[in-house]
Design goal:
heterodimer, A: 511 residues, alpha/beta, 6-stranded antiparallel barrel, 39% helix, B: alpha+beta, 4 strands
Chain lengths: 511, 125
C-alpha cells in the first residue's frame, strides 16, 4: 500500500511539467454591497468568472460591467472577505455548474454546494461534468412541437389549461393564493402519473424564507417526491447575486437531463424576486434605471432563461425541459411591467384570482383569463373528449352568473345551465396535496358533463365525486380506469362500460 | 459629477507639466487640497495609485513589483529588468512563504508566478 502511494507520487513528480506563464491580474479598487470594482484585467470578457484572492481564501466573482478603466463584478459568496487591493485573476471561462445524477434528491445552492445533511454530493469516482450556467437556447431546427402531456394532477388545469412537456406555462397571482401549492402538487403528481416517464423535477427557490423551503422539502419527502426532485435554493438571507444566479444554475441542471433524452420539469419560485435581485445588482453597478427602476435588459434576463425550456427533436435525443415560472402580482395587476414581460414570453398562463380564492374556489384558477397556447396537443384523447364541453359549459355559466340572483325569474334552460355550472365549479375544487390522476379526472368530468351530478346539491358534489372515484377504483379499475390510463382514450366499448358503471353508482346513491 | 481617479491623475500631470521641482511640490499640495475640497479623501489611495500609473505611462516605463524569499541580488535584478523592457523595479518584498523563486507583478496587470510555492500547489492539485 505504502509502496503504491510512493510509486504514484514518483510518477506525478516525474511527469510534472514546469511551466511559468504570465497571467493577467487586476486589483480590487472598491467593494461593497456585493459589488467589487476592479482595475486591470482589461481583456476580461462579459460574464467571465473571476477569482478574488482574499486572506480568507478564494472568492468567486462574475464580470458584469466592462467599463473603460474598471470592471464591475458581482461577488458570489461572502463579499465581506474581499478587501481593497486584493488580487483578482480572470479564469477565461464562464461560470459553470457541476451536474450529474447524484444531484437527484439533494438540496443545493446556486453554486452547486450542498445545503442538506446527506454528505458530499459527488463521490471521488463520480464523473466530472460541468454545464455552463449561461447557454444559448436550442435552435428552431433542434426542436419539435410539444406533443406529450405533463399532468399536474389538478383538475382545473389538466382539463382546461393543459401543459405539455417542453412548454413554458406561467403561474401568476397575488401573494398567498396557491401558486406554490400548484407547483408542489405538480411535482408530487409526476410520481403518480405512470402513463409517461417520470420527469426529473427541479424546484428553484428564489429569495424564499428558509422555513418555507424546509417545509416544501419535508412535504416532498413525505410524498416520496424527493426521489426524482432537486431543490436549488437561494434563500432570502443570501446575497442578491445568488438570487440572480439561481434560475440559471437550475436550468443548467435541467439541460443536463434534457440532453440525456429525459424529461425535466423546472419551477422558478418566483421570477418577481429574481427581477428585484437583478434590479438591485444593476443599480449598484450604476446601470441606467428604466421603467420602475428596472434596467433596460430586464426582458432579456427572463427571455433567455425561459427560451432554454424546449422539447428537443428525436435527432437531439427527444428530451424536454418544461418550465413553470411563477410571478407574484400586486392586487391582481397583471398589466404591470414584469408580469406583462413574462406573459409575452411564456406559452400561456394560469391566472389565480383572489375573488375566487375568498369564495372558497380552490385552486382559484380563472379559466376565462388562463390560457395554454399548446392546448389540446398536450392532452390525451380521453381528456380532449370531455374537456371541450367542460370549458364551454363553464364559459356559459360565467355569462349567466349575474342572473343567479334572480333564479325564480329564469327560464328552464338558463336555470339548468346555471345549476350545471355550479356543479362543475364544485367538481373542479380540489384540496392541496391531493393530485388526481388523469384517468380519474376523465371519469369525473364525463359524469359531470353528462348530467349525473345535476341532482346532487352543490355542497355534496365533492363528497359524491370522491365516492365515485373510490367506487371506480374498487369495482372497475381493470376494466375502465386501467384501460383509459394505458390507452389514453375512451373507445366506444369503454364508453359503454363507463356509462353502465356510472348508472349503477348514481342509481344506488339516489335510492 | 464625481471625477474618476484617472481624471485626477491626468489633471495633475497636465498641471505640473513644464514646471520646476519647487512648483511641482506646490502643485502636489494644491492637488491634495483639491481632493479634500471635493470630498474625495476616502478615494485618495485609489487616486494616488492612478497618479503612479500615469507617471510610469508618461515615462514610457513599466512598474515592477518583486516578491522573493531573500533580498534580490544585483544579477537577479538585471535578469528581471532584461525580461521587461523599460522596466523599473519599484517595490521589492521578502516573503518566506514562497519557499523559493520570485513573483513578478508588472503594471498591476501582469503577474508572473515563478515561486516554488506555486509549483508545489500545481503539483498536488
Amino acid at each position: 500500500m505504502k509502496d503504491s502511494i510512493i510509486e504514484n507520487l514518483k510518477k506525478e513528480i516525474e511527469g510534472f511539467k514546469h511551466e511559468i506563464k504570465a497571467e493577467k491580474m487586476g486589483r480590487v479598487l472598491e467593494v461593497g454591497d456585493g459589488i467589487a470594482k476592479i482595475s486591470g484585467i482589461s481583456e476580461v470578457g462579459s460574464q467571465e468568472m473571476l477569482l478574488i484572492e482574499t486572506s480568507g481564501g478564494e472568492v468567486v466573482g462574475i464580470a458584469f460591467n466592462l467599463e473603460e478603466d474598471l470592471v464591475g463584478a458581482i461577488v458570489l459568496g461572502d463579499s465581506t472577505k474581499v478587501k481593497e487591493g486584493d488580487v483578482v485573476k480572470p479564469t477565461g471561462r464562464v461560470l459553470s455548474m457541476r451536474v450529474g445524477d447524484e444531484l437527484i434528491g439533494r438540496v443545493v445552492d446556486p453554486l452547486g454546494n450542498q445545503q442538506d445533511e446527506h454528505g458530499p454530493i459527488f463521490g471521488t469516482k463520480s464523473k466530472e461534468l460541468y454545464y455552463p450556467v449561461e447557454r444559448v437556447a436550442p435552435s428552431v431546427l433542434d426542436r419539435e412541437s410539444v406533443n406529450t402531456p405533463l399532468h399536474t394532477g389538478i383538475k382545473a388545469i389538466d382539463s382546461m389549461i393543459p401543459v405539455g412537456r417542453g412548454q413554458r406555462e406561467l403561474i401568476i397571482g397575488d401573494r398567498q393564493i396557491g401558486k406554490t401549492s400548484i407547483a408542489i402538487d405538480t411535482i408530487i403528481n409526476q410520481g403518480k402519473d405512470t402513463r409517461y416517464p417520470t420527469p426529473i423535477c427541479i424546484y428553484v427557490a428564489i429569495g424564499q424564507k428558509e422555513s418555507k423551503v424546509a417545509k416544501i422539502v419535508a412535504r416532498l419527502k413525505e410524498q416520496g417526491a424527493m426521489e426524482y426532485t432537486i431543490v436549488v435554493s437561494a434563500p432570502a438571507s443570501s446575497p442578491a447575486s445568488l438570487w440572480f444566479l439561481a434560475p440559471y444554475s437550475a436550468t443548467a441542471i435541467g439541460e443536463y437531463f434534457m440532453h440525456k433524452g429525459k424529461d425535466a420539469l423546472i419551477i422558478y419560485d418566483d421570477l418577481s424576486k429574481h427581477a428585484w435581485a437583478y434590479r438591485e445588482l444593476s443599480l449598484l453597478l450604476r446601470r441606467p434605471p428604466g421603467r420602475e427602476a428596472y434596467p433596460g435588459d430586464i426582458f432579456y434576463v427572463h427571455s433567455r432563461l425561459l427560451e432554454r425550456a424546449a422539447k428537443l427533436s428525436r435527432e437531439k435525443g427527444g428530451g424536454s425541459l418544461t418550465a413553470l415560472p411563477i410571478i407574484e402580482t400586486q392586487l391582481g395587476d397583471v398589466s404591470a411591467y414584469i408580469p406583462t414581460n413574462v406573459i409575452s414570453i411564456t406559452d400561456g398562463q394560469i391566472y389565480l384570482e383572489p375573488e375566487l380564492f375568498y369564495q372558497g374556489i380552490r385552486p382559484a384558477v380563472n379559466a376565462g383569463l388562463s390560457v395554454s397556447r399548446v392546448g389540446s396537443a398536450a392532452q390525451t384523447k380521453a381528456m380532449k373528449k370531455v374537456a371541450g364541453k367542460l370549458r364551454l359549459e363553464l364559459a356559459q355559466f360565467r355569462e349567466l352568473a349575474a342572473f343567479t340572483q334572480f333564479a325564480s325569474e329564469l327560464d328552464e334552460s338558463t336555470r339548468k345551465r346555471i345549476e350545471r355550472g355550479r356543479v362543475l365549479i364544485e367538481v373542479l375544487k380540489q384540496p392541496e396535496m391531493d393530485p388526481v390522476s388523469f384517468e380519474k379526472q376523465v371519469v369525473l368530468f364525463y359524469a359531470a358533463i353528462h348530467g349525473h351530478f345535476d341532482t346532487t346539491p352543490p355542497s355534496e358534489v365533492v363528497k359524491k365525486g370522491n365516492d365515485l372515484l373510490d367506487y371506480m377504483e374498487t369495482m372497475h379499475n381493470d376494466t375502465v380506469l386501467g384501460v383509459i390510463q394505458s390507452s389514453g382514450e375512451i373507445s366506444k366499448e369503454i364508453e359503454e362500460k363507463l356509462k353502465v358503471a356510472l348508472e349503477d353508482f348514481f342509481s344506488v346513491s339516489r335510492s | 459629477m464625481k471625477s474618476t481617479a484617472k481624471q485626477y491623475a491626468q489633471a495633475f500631470f497636465a498641471a505640473t507639466e513644464g514646471r520646476g521641482e519647487k512648483d511641482q511640490k506646490k502643485m502636489m499640495g494644491h492637488f491634495l487640497t483639491t481632493i479634500r475640497k471635493n470630498g474625495d479623501m476616502p478615494r485618495l489611495h485609489g487616486i494616488m495609485r492612478e497618479v503612479e500609473r500615469e507617471y510610469y505611462k508618461q515615462q514610457g516605463a513599466h512598474k515592477i513589483e518583486v516578491e522573493s524569499v531573500t533580498p534580490l541580488s544585483v544579477s537577479t535584478k538585471k535578469q528581471i529588468l532584461a525580461m521587461v523592457s523599460h522596466g523599473v523595479i519599484a517595490k521589492e518584498c521578502v516573503d518566506a512563504s514562497l519557499v523559493g523563486g520570485v513573483t513578478i507583478c508588472v503594471d498591476d496587470e501582469t503577474f508572473i508566478d515563478a515561486s516554488i510555492k506555486n509549483q508545489l500547489v500545481k503539483l498536488f492539485k
